[in-house]
């Protein structure tokens, strides 16, 4: 239907989140109208994502340059006693936009899926547990872990799993309160709603 270069472009970009074959084909024809210089700019920006960014060794957020940790983890003004546990990087950015959270973060890298019984093994739960336990030997130990996970079946399942695992650390475990409707994605929530959910978080207690 299309020449090979366009077909290959569509195949590559259709594999990206929220982009299907139709959107990828539109992108292809849009880019065909751009100059070689503009296309090179796009290519440079994409390459920079890999070349100029690192994954934070502490919370797994993105960090620029050669820093081992991200700006948030390196900020001495952040509250070291509270860790906000999120599914992905964009959730961290969404919470930061509210301006209401001044603690640290921990990115799990996903949630538990009913369709994949072993999916919990792919999450950074062990790193979170060890991070909390290590902090308890330091001057400012972690006292609270906020499970800021989406109110979806996967998010609920992951929160229950984390609660059981983190119970052994003795920290207070809370979850976002009112504001986010069931099935919502924090990434698309407005700042006021997400801020209210943070402020009204409730403690989780295993029966």
From TrEMBL:
Coiled-coil annotated residue ranges, if any: none
Sample GO molecular function, one term: DNA binding
PROSITE patterns xrefs: TOPRIM
GO biological process per UniProt: DNA recombination; DNA repair
Family to which the UniProt record says this protein belongs: Belongs to the RecR family.
Protein function: May play a role in DNA repair. It seems to be involved in an RecBC-independent recombinational process of DNA repair. It may act with RecF and RecO.
Record's protein name: Recombination protein RecR
Organism: Candidatus Azambacteria bacterium GW2011_GWC1_46_13
């Amino acid at each position: 239907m299309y020449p090979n270069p366009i077909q290959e472009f569509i195949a590559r970009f259709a594999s990206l989140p929220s982009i299907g074959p139709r959107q990828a084909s539109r992108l292809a024809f849009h880019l065909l109208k751009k100059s070689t210089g503009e296309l090179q700019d796009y290519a440079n920006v994409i390459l920079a994502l890999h070349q100029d960014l690192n994954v934070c060794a502490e919370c797994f957020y993105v960090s620029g340059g050669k820093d081992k940790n991200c700006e948030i983890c390196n900020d001495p003004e952040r509250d070291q006693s509270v860790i906000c546990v999120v599914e992905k990087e964009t959730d961290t950015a969404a919470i930061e936009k509210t301006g209401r959270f001044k603690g640290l973060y921990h990115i799990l890298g996903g949630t538990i899926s009913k369709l994949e019984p072993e999916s919990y093994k792919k999450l950074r739960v062990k790193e979170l547990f060890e991070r909390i336990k290590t902090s308890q030997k330091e001057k400012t130990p972690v006292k609270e872990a906020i499970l800021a996970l989406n109110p979806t079946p996967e998010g609920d399942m992951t929160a229950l799993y984390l609660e059981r695992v983190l119970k052994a650390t003795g920290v207070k475990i809370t979850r976002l309160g009112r504001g986010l409707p069931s099935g919502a994605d924090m990434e698309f929530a407005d700042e006021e709603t997400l801020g209210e959910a943070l402020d009204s978080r409730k403690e989780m207690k295993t029966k």
